Amino acid sequence: QVQLVESGGGLVQAGGSLRLSCAASGRTFSSYIMAWFRQAPGKEREFVAAITRSGVSLNYRDSVKGRFIISRDNAKNTVYLQMNSLKPEDTAVYYCAARGAVLRTNPLEYDYWGQGTQVTVSS
Fold first, then answer.
1. Residues paired with residue 70 on neighbouring β-strands, in sequence order
2. Dihedrals φ, ψ of 74, to 5°?
3. How much of the chain exceeds pLDDT 70, in percent?
4. Which residues is 20 bridged to in the sheet?
5. How far are the Cα atoms of 18, 100, 101 from residue 68, in angstroms, in the given order?
6. What is the Cα–Cα distance from 97 to 10, expressed in whole angstroms?
7. pLDDT confidence of residue 3
8. Closest listed residue to residue 91, CA positions, set 8, 4, 2, 9
9. Partners of 18 in beta bridges
10. How buried is residue 43: exposed, middle or buried, by Cβ count under 10 Å (0-12/13-18/19+)?
């Protein structure tokens, strides 16, 4: 059981940076694989990044590699997505998600979801 709440979205100019946070309820945060997905209007929800329970293994979609950094602070029950060199194509609602074990990139395989936070990147 976990409740996820995203924050940190907003409007930024292309080339700028934004840091998203996802706060989890409960005391079992460290037991979950955490991930970020995003969905633009009229498009499918797509995988962005994920991190294992220990934080040792990371996975990113190709288009954000080198620009985005996922991290987690288990003591604070929080996962972060640092987004740098933002592009207009990054504009979407960003969702935090969690699953019990094994890193996956399919959103259907995640059990818990936050409400999403809007990220808008202007040209």
1. 81
2. -65, -30
3. 99
4. 81
5. 10, 23, 23
6. 19
7. 92
8. 9
9. 83
10. exposed
